[in-house]
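Hey team,

Filing this mostly as a record. A colleague (T.K.) asked me to run one chain through the structure pipeline before their review meeting, and I want the input and output archived in the tracker in case anyone asks later how it was produced. No errors, nothing strange. Just documentation.

Input sequence:
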Amino acid sequence: MISIKIHMKVGSQIPEYKSDGASGADLYALLESPYTLKPGETALIPTGITIELPYGYEAQIRPRSGLAINHGITLLNTPGTIDSDYRGEIKVVITNCGKNDFIITSGMRIAQMVFNKIYRGNFIVSDSLAATDRNDGGFGHSGL
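Output structure:
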């Protein structure tokens, strides 16, 4: 477990794990009034929280499965990444892929946040790469 410092605007809610085995902590919307997300629309929804991650960690912002299956609500940049040096408010890029309006209210659970250790790459320029059976095959090259 890592310790995460959090700053909260008035009215915001602390992220919460809903079960002992949950890997994602729910994030809550902080809105002055309800927001109607139309089908096909994308909006940036504030949470009212700012976090301070330890160096070497990231927070990933992911969709909630219940919103996805029941309402067609997902996050456009999934997973969104919060770097350890970011100190701005966490805002969630929500998209309505469904057929109906979706009303977002303050205090609604809109996403989940998962923490991960990160590993930085050391890029080494090379004239060639080791061959594999796959090589450059991608985007369905292995069939259905």
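Quick notes for T.K.: The first helix runs from residue 65 to 71. Residues 55 and 84 are 5 Å apart (CA to CA).
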